[in-house]
Specification:
Length: about 220
């Protein structure tokens, strides 16, 4: 069956990846509280690096938009990603007894670097629809994962606090807006560009799985 909307077409292309994320031991460990603290710390440290560059990718996306509401929306989300990095992350790092010096000393890991590089490359050199498709899994997968986790929260108060951020109604409204932009763009895309968008979406959805997996393993650079 042909998907009814562009966002549905994108989601269909990445659904097996999303299903794999839900059963990944990082996610099940957050939910039942068995995730080792060291893996969560790796995640928060890497996410601090990620959010700095994700924010810049959103600013590049904003610069490519033509509709001024969309310019304002992506620019606002770019500023918000920095605010999260400064607020929630600083607080969680404090609870983990880590500082911004530790974040800088750890540097960006192999998966973080690959994911950030891909985001930056597409948002800087691709079309506006390609940029939107590339940044979308970050929003959408976190909202869906947030909802699944929110249903049972976590016996660990630190993990419960993190879960509450992404399972919120505020995140729902943000993602709904981005999805309606995606569907608007999709209505007049040619087949070749549509296919490029599907590939970008699938690639960054894969990076989302790899990001959880790297944190679970505390993956170092191999050399
Ligand atoms: C690896 C990784 N992927 C997605 C998010 C979630 N996220 C980051 S910024 C944003 C909205 C725009 O400000 C959302 C939903 C994350 N934190 N880390």
């Amino acid at each position: 069956m042909t998907p009814s909307t562009f966002s549905q077409q994108l989601w269909d292309a990445a659904e097996p990846i999303y299903d794999a994320i839900l059963v990944h031991p990082f996610i099940t460990g957050l939910a039942d509280g068995t995730l080792p603290r060291e893996s969560f710390a790796y995640f928060i440290v890497q996410d601090s690096h990620y959010l700095r560059d994700y924010s810049r990718a959103l600013a590049l996306t904003a610069a490519r938009a033509h509709d001024e509401d969309e310019v304002a929306m992506f620019a606002d989300h770019a500023a918000n990603a920095i605010a999260v990095e400064r607020g929630l992350h600083a607080e969680l790092l404090g609870d983990l007894e880590l500082t911004s010096t530790d974040v800088d000393a750890a540097g960006s890991g192999p998966v973080t670097t690959a994911y950030m590089s891909y985001l930056t490359a597409v948002c800087a050199t691709g079309s506006y629809p390609e940029a939107v498709a590339t940044v979308l899994p970050c929003y959408w997968i976190y909202r869906q994962v947030g909802h699944v986790l929110e249903a049972g929260s976590s016996p660990d108060p630190l993990y419960a606090r993190w879960i509450a951020t992404y399972g919120s109604a505020e995140v729902d409204a943000i993602v709904d807006r981005v999805l309606s932009v995606t569907d608007r763009i999709g209505s007049d895309l040619g087949a070749a560009e549509r296919e490029r968008c599907v590939r970008h979406f699938r690639t960054t959805a894969r990076y989302e799985w790899m990001f959880w997996d790297a944190a679970y393993q505390r993956l170092p650079w191999p050399i």
